[in-house]
Amino acid sequence: MQRRQFLLALGAAATLPRLAGAAPAGSTTRIGAAWRGPRNTDPYFAGVLAADWETRRLSIAYAVPLPTRPHGISAKPDGGLLVIGVRPGTWLLRCDGTGQVLREERLDSARTRLGGHAIGQGDKIFTTETDVASGRGRIGVRDANTLAKLDEWDSHGIDPHQLVSDAQGRILVANGGIPRSIPGDRKHDLERMDSCLVRLDGADGRLLDQWRLDDRRLSLRHLAWNQDPRSGDTLLGIALQAEHDDPAARAAAPLLALLHNDALTVPSQQNDGIGYAGDIAPAAHGGFALSSNQAGLALAWQPQAPDRLTPVVKFKETYALAPWADGGDPGGLLVSTAYGLVRWLPGGEPVFLAWPEPMAVDNHWTLAA
């Protein structure tokens, strides 16, 4: 890609307020990611990519071969990762900061399948799961060391996808609400969709709260926290995926829902023209960034202008997002694309680092220790 084309692709970055400067010379950022080679049949890996901002190069710090395609990735304090197989998942594993696999748990003969995401809380991790026989959503409570299941809770919905914990240790779960076949992961009977957001007691899984959007064909999928700097209020951003039968309704569907003061709303009707938000991350001014790989866009939302979504990155296969702070100033993003990593800063020039080898990075990534 020529420099002029690259700058044109990222020119929309100038549309948001400028807050921060360039990253310190010589600094390196470690990113937990998953990828395969350029062909659909290539094997999958998870590991850490090292971004050297001084030399403008990406390298692979370590790579762990995976049984099948992965989905959610969580960073561990020792530089290791917790990796979850893609829905309907039959494995999860954790590795240390050198890429040595410390534990792999298989679910091949279990009565549940993984939904693709997990969170850690103390000596436990929580996984979204689906009961194969009933199709009901479950939350697996697992030992953080052995990954063995200790308990199982009702997710109070179907198709549970991502989950997060709040400051009080409660668990919030996005039940996507899409009926799916296992095996095959095929959607069916979409007229029965019932997506909801639930808040569970983190000690016993008791249902504390439940919310639904008026439009039942909007699937609540991915979650991210941020804080409005004006009020100090905590905001939960929720990435939406439209499942309407009518293509025009899908194309016009919103991408973002917001949980604020225990009210679930859709702040903006602006979208990507497709109705598919792939990932979400906290962004500048207490807002959120949403990716649309099908449209090749990352869009930013801010509570100061709640009706607007502003394009900040335009690149083929824009997908995985991670927050980026420079010198303590938050609001930047690390964005995966078809060609490499884009570092976007509200107050600086965008930076592009090509992949270290031909590779297709998967849907989500995270900052690693």
How would you characterize this protein structure?
By secondary structure, the chain is mainly beta. It has a single domain, classed as 7 Propeller (Methylamine Dehydrogenase, Chain H). It is 3% helix and 49% strand. Strands 1, 2, 3, 28 and 29 form a five-stranded antiparallel β-sheet that branches. A hairpin with a 2-residue loop joins β8 and β9. The chain is globular and about 55 Å long.
Summarize, please.
With 369 residues, the protein is mainly beta. Helices cover 3% and strands 49% of the residues.
**Uncertain segments:** 1-26
What is the overall shape? globular
* CATH architectural group: 7 Propeller
User: DSSP helix count?
Assistant: 2
Helix-residue proportion: under 10%
Largest sheet: 5 strands, antiparallel
Any idea what the radius of gyration is?
Answer: 19 Å
Q: What's the number of extended β-strand segments?
A: 29
The CATH topology: Methylamine Dehydrogenase, Chain H
Q: What's the rounded overall pLDDT mean?
A: 93
| The top level CATH class name | Mainly Beta
